[in-house]
Amino acid sequence: MSKKKDKEVKEEQESVKDRVEEILDEAIEEVEEKEKDQENTEEDSDFGMSETELLKEEVQKEKDKFLRLFAEFENYKKRTSKERLELFKTANQEVITAMLPVLDDFDRALNEIRKTEDKNLLQGVELINNKFRETLHSKGLEPMNVEEGETFNADIHEAITQIPAPSDDLKGKIVDVVERGYKLGERIIRYPKVVTGK
């Protein structure tokens, strides 16, 4: 029994010893932390800034960073929405450009049908032509009105040839329009082909 008691006493002493060591370790850590805090406050006071001022400065930096990021994001949104609008305006450009020769064929067909005396045929083709043009117009297609006698402008006209001007007032001007030009919104998708006088 005495051995058992001795053993229990030893275990109790060891556990008390362990607890004392833990308490001492905690106390040492607390003292070290207090010393560090004291050193930090001394350093802060050496630099003339308190912990509150440092925190305020840090918050200000983060606020500036956030504002810059927000401004960049707003610019990005504006730019992408502008690009998206431009894309929507010209998304069907390829299809409409492919339809332009069909419009030219309608013009030629109408000119030939007008030479015949068949009024019903002329009326039917005119109805189809008008419907086709209105559909393309609703998608943003606009014909470029170029007339004979206008001054030639290389930015909006495509000269396919130059002929001697029939009169002096047509020199450097458009003598004939070979193919009509078209715009899709503000963009020219086919330049009018013209003959100029020299």
UniProtKB/TrEMBL annotation:
Region listing for Disordered, in residue ranges: 1-52
Q: Is the keyword Chaperone in the record?
A: yes
What family is it from? Belongs to the GrpE family.
Q: Where is the composition biased (Basic and acidic residues)?
A: 1-22
Share what the entry says about its subunit structure, partners included. Answer: Homodimer.
What task does this protein carry out? Participates actively in the response to hyperosmotic and heat shock by preventing the aggregation of stress-denatured proteins, in association with DnaK and GrpE. It is the nucleotide exchange factor for DnaK and may function as a thermosensor. Unfolded proteins bind initially to DnaJ; upon interaction with the DnaJ-bound protein, DnaK hydrolyzes its bound ATP, resulting in the formation of a stable complex. GrpE releases ADP from DnaK; ATP binding to DnaK triggers the release of the substrate protein, thus completing the reaction cycle.
Recite the UniProt keywords alphabetically. Answer: Chaperone, Cytoplasm, Stress response
UniProt-annotated location(s): Cytoplasm
Kinase recorded as keyword: no
Q: What is the official name of this protein in its record? A: Protein GrpE
List the Gene3D superfamilies: 3.90.20.20, Head domain of nucleotide exchange factor GrpE (2.30.22.10)
The main location is cytoplasm
Biased segments, Acidic residues type: 23-32
